[in-house]
Amino acid sequence: MSHIDRESFERYKRQIAIPEIQEQGQEKIRNAKILLIGAGGLASSAAFYLAAAGIGNIGIADDDRVEMSNLNRQILHDPGRISMLKAVSAKSSLERFNPEIQIKAYPKRFQTRDELIRILGDYDLAVDCSDNYMTRFALNDACIQTGKPWVHGAVYGFEGQAMTFVPGQGPCYRCLYPSLPGDKSSPDAPVGVIGVSPGIIGMIQAAEALKYILGKGNLLVGRLLFMDLLEMSFSEFSVHRNEDCPSCSEK
User: What is the 3 state secondary structure string of 171-189?
Assistant: First the structure.
């Protein structure tokens, strides 16, 4: 075993010891390519834990710059990076955290289906860490077109939700939300959020992504997980495929 092999084994040996992972599973994780749409609160915990697990290639897309108001929840960034592009800041943090993996920064906003189709070809699945419906709808349609799965997450205050979409298996995002709410031409208005909410939902998204890569466990396909931290409760709601869905219907 080479020095690098030994170092890698030491880094990941506690998860290699898990029966559902072992060395074969760790190799799947190392070969995986995951795209994160957004580099904010959700991405902060999702990206750190995917990097910690050893995902070999992680892409992060975001055109925003770091602001002081981000720092209550976006732990990928720090006060010394105010005004830095978030995608670039995230890349720097993750490369320092785990030098073994490859990080690619996309300092732009992907908000059309065609833009996302072009980038999704380089990845196995996407993690939705965006903050607006337009991006989610575009990602949904792009993933259906390319056959790529994606993990959705959203937060508000002390609440959050997560769901996994696998084309051809269960409903899609438009089955859950048939149309864009409000003004379709503008992104969602900023909402209040406490940092632990995206932290927890982002970790759930990372867990779903790892389960998909490993082919283990029961994914949140057709199951919307809702979190209420004030009540410290998790609820699950069944979501069924809409036979008339404009995105995934076979009609």
Answer: CCHHHHCCCCCCCCCCCCC
Q: Looking at this protein, which amino acid is placed at residue 250?
A: E
Report if residue 23 sits inside a domain: no
pTM over 0.90: yes
**The tokens 């995986």 sit on which residue?**
32
Contact criterion met (CB below 8 Å) for 34 and 55: yes
Give the domain CATH number at 98: 3.40.50.720
What is d(CA 92, CA 94) in angstroms, rounded to the nearest whole number?
Answer: 6
3-state secondary structure of 196: helix
Residue 97 in this model has a pLDDT that exceeds 90: yes
Is residue 245 assigned to a domain?
Answer: no
Q: How much of the chain is in helix, strand and coil states, percent to nearest 5?
A: 40, 20, 40
